[in-house]
């Protein structure tokens, strides 16, 4: 008996290893497919609404695909152009960092006999950092070039919605098929609700934060607003990182702490109001993902697919937890993934 458990554990480790290798090597195809699955969950309620309005299904799918394609493409183009400007203007912040550190050193009369802070920053090739940022933006948004493939997947996923019920009814007895269909519908509804509400909440948070940053005149407000939108998918950790990025730039841009202080207060209020009051009321009972689980998925998917994988990490974890919570034999997995 003990030997069977050891064999089973070894087989699980081997399967996970090979699954990781396959996922890593098949990224060019699987990432657009995964992205299409998540987008289809977000777009499905719109398709259902248009269908209820007696609009032909084919016309509804075509309208959704065209509209979504142009929205995502324009947003990606806007961020890419803003990101290129950010990377090209990054070197000027190196000089500001040096001047601020020199000022602090003079005011506090601190001397650094061995590690001269100002000289240390002076030795850093800021142009290389800017070039690195500029080259990193391309891979981050390489999926823009694959939008056609993503939307091909979405077309077939949306067109195939509703066929699962008929296939299950043909494959199982009436009682068993009814149980399976009920579980599938519950999973589908919960994933749709989570992704749709999370996307809307993240979008509102990103837009409000962008407006605040623009009012204060912070450079690259659109870039930081997009980061806030994306990072808002990551519970707790994401909001901290999203707030820290524009604050750091604000400190060095204005060379005083007061604008950064007020930005921190306002962005913090937006995050707290939406995250602690509005989102729970709209979402209902939260998924309650463990922070350790979130970190594991971030590192795992980051290792697999880089930054795009990290974007999909938490939605993937949430989807797995929803599926496990609704399937009794797997409920223990959902419990292990919960906060406590």
UniProtKB/TrEMBL annotation:
The chain crosses the membrane at residues 7-23, 29-47, 59-80, 140-160, 195-216, 222-245, 257-278, 284-304. InterPro entries: AI-2E-like. GO terms for biological process: transmembrane transport. One of its GO terms (cellular component) is membrane. Keywords: Membrane, Transmembrane, Transmembrane helix. It is a multi-pass membrane protein. It is found in: Membrane. Belongs to the autoinducer-2 exporter (AI-2E) (TC 2.A.86) family. This is AI-2E family transporter. The lineage of its organism: unclassified sequences, metagenomes, ecological metagenomes.
């Amino acid at each position: 008996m003990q030997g069977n458990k050891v064999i089973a554990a070894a087989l699980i480790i081997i399967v996970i290893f090979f699954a990781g290798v396959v996922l890593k090597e098949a990224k060019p195809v699987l990432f657009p497919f995964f992205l299409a699955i998540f987008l289809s969950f977000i777009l499905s309620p719109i398709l259902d609404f248009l269908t209820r309005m007696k609009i032909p299904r084919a016309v509804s799918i075509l309208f959704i695909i065209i509209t979504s394609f142009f929205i995502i493409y324009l947003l990606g183009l806007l961020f890419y152009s803003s990101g290129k400007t950010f990377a090209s203007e990054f070197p000027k912040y190196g000089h500001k960092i040096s001047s601020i550190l020199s000022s602090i050193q003079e005011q506090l009369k601190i001397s650094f006999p061995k590690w001269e802070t100002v000289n240390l920053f002076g030795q850093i090739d800021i142009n290389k950092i800017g070039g690195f940022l500029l080259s990193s933006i391309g891979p981050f948004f390489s999926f823009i070039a694959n939008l056609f493939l993503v939307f091909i997947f979405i077309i077939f996923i949306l067109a195939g919605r509703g066929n699962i019920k008929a296939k299950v009814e043909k494959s199982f007895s009436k009682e068993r098929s009814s149980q399976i269909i009920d579980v599938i519908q519950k999973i589908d509804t919960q994933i749709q609700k989570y992704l749709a509400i999370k996307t809307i909440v993240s979008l509102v948070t990103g837009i409000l934060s962008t407006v605040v940053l623009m009012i204060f005149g912070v450079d690259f407000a659109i870039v930081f607003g997009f980061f806030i939108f994306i990072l808002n998918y990551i519970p707790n950790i994401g909001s901290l990182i999203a707030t820290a990025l524009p604050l750091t730039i604000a400190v060095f841009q204005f060379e005083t702490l007061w604008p950064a202080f007020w930005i921190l207060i306002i962005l913090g209020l937006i995050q707290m109001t939406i995250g602690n009051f509005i989102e729970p009321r709209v979402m209902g009972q939260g998924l309650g993902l463990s922070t350790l689980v979130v970190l594991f998925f971030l590192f795992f998917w980051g290792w697999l697919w880089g930054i795009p994988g990290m974007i999909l990490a938490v939605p993937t974890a949430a989807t797995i937890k929803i599926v496990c919570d609704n399937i009794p034999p797997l409920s223990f997995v959902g419990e292990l993934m919960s906060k406590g």
